[in-house]
Amino acid sequence: MLPRRSLALLLCTSVIAGCAVGPDYRRPDAPLPAHYMGQTAVEQQHAASTADLATWWQGFNDTLLSHFVSLALEQNLDLAQASARVTQARAALGGADAALLPSGNISGSAARAHQSTETPLGKVLNATPNYDRWGNAYEVDLGASWEVDIFGGLRRGREAALADYQASEAGVAATRLEVAAQTADIYIAIRGLQTRLEITQRQVKVEQELLAKVSLLYGKGLAAEYQVRQTEGELAQVQATVPVLQTQLDAAMNALDVMLGSPPGTHRTELAAAAPIPATPKIASLGSPADLLQRRPDLIVAERHLAAANARIGEAISEYYPKFSLSGLLGSATTVSSGNLFTGGASQAAGVLGLRWRLFDFGRINPQIKAAKGRDAEVLAAYRQAVLRATEDVENSFSALVNREEQAVTLSQGEASLARARESSSIAYQNGAASLIDVLHADQTLLQTSDARAQAQTESARAAVAAFKALGGGWQPREAEAVAIK
Fold first, then answer.
1. Is there a contact between 42 and 272 (Cβ–Cβ < 8 Å)?
2. Integer CA distances (angstroms), 44 to 144, 278, 456, 468, in order
3. Pick from 157, 161, 158, 179: which is nearest to 82 by CA?
4. Is 210 left (phi over 0), alpha (psi -120 to 50) or beta?
5. Which one of 95, 207, 285, 370 is CB 3.0 to 4.6 Å from 235, fit for a cystine?
6. How far from each other are the two terminal CA atoms of the chain, in whole angstroms?
């Protein structure tokens, strides 16, 4: 009867094996518009170059920028941490796979014991003729066990582990994108600060020359003392901005070194020579909001976490049902001599059909299921929120890109006009046709406009970086395949 019952159990198992308790996962819908609101304006953008999303940093046509981004992707420590998390998730997936398979072990022992004659057993044995108080025992066994996953609890656990592993792989891609964007952003900020510092230092030189002229006129009795003091005050005001900009520049250079996984100061020599602010490239392909679901790795991370949470509901529900296991043992044991092992008389075998059912433990199982469902609802809301914020990032970056670029063009035109006005006011002052106040006002206005123009150019380039990041640019093809949703 036992073989027949075992066969019946295995047949039932094979029929039910395709079923698993709990909800099957379906990726939720994410209602998104057909187009971005700022798409038309960005597509009409005029730029000297075009950047492809995969390697967008090369579109800035700045060799040093591309070098630093490549270096950061090799050396950044945040990326190293993300890669280590993939290793951990892969190990967890391996454990979940192993739980579905039979386990086996080999055990063996050899023992020698000296029997006491003061115990009841020893007294009985001691009364036996030719009793030897020394005894030997030898045993070698091969054991195997298998938990039959009838109701799919183990398979749901594997689904969760697989989703977590895929999330960790997508997390590496998300970290790569973040590292590339931050590195480019810091580099552009450095070039912007250097440009502003150069403008300020040039203005300091102009103010010093003006002070020398006014002082000369004052020495000849052709200028009043208050004019000298006004010029000195204006010069001091401009000079005071230099240490502020220098402090910001030092902090940015230190931040870039840390992004590159290096101590502060490592790459300062390469950045010592000022260079122009990188020109903003045009985005080659914008795609649609729906493309973000596959383009942005952070959304894939959120979606895979949702899949894992869904699978853990089934894993918790499976505790309602009985769990069956099969185990067996083949071995050999003897108390005579090790030479008698593996003989017919020493052989031993056992087969066990196990049952474990938390029949009277539903009071603990119910809260576990409710907690799993609550976690799933939380992650679902987080996923939908992530999708909304992704589209918000794109729209904000598009708006900043277009408006900052327009601001930079306007300020460049104004800067050229003010430079001519300043030159005219200086000539008029030397000829006595304008006051020193006119010259100082022209200087101040020119400095403010030049500084604002440099900031606008910097922010325009940084907005382009933010747009590439928001669109999910920076993927490598092999990474895209590795995190494909199954």
1. no
2. 69, 20, 19, 17
3. 179
4. alpha
5. 207
6. 44
What pLDDT, on a 0 to 100 scale, did the predictor assign at position 5? 53
Q: Where are the beta strands (DSSP E) in 244-283?
A: 282-283
Please provide the average confidence, as pLDDT, over all residues in the chain: 86
| Residue 132: φ, ψ to 5° | -105, 120
Rounded to whole angstroms, how far apart are CA atoms 401 and 43? 11
Q: Which of the given ranges, 19-33, 418-432, 452-466, has the highest pLDDT on average?
A: 452-466
For residue 151, give the DSSP letter.
Answer: S
pTM over 0.85: no
Pairing of strands 323-334, 50-51: unpaired
| Tally of residues, the chain | 486
Nearest to 238 by CA among 265, 211, 262, 259: 211
Radius of gyration of the chain (CA): 38
User: Region 112-121: what's the mean pLDDT?
Assistant: 84
Q: What is the pLDDT of residue 45?
A: 78
β-sheet bridge partners, residue 323: 356
Chain mean position to CA 180: 11
Q: Please give the average per-residue pLDDT across 334-355, as a whole number.
A: 82
Tell me if 41 sits within 8 A of 32, measured CB to CB: no
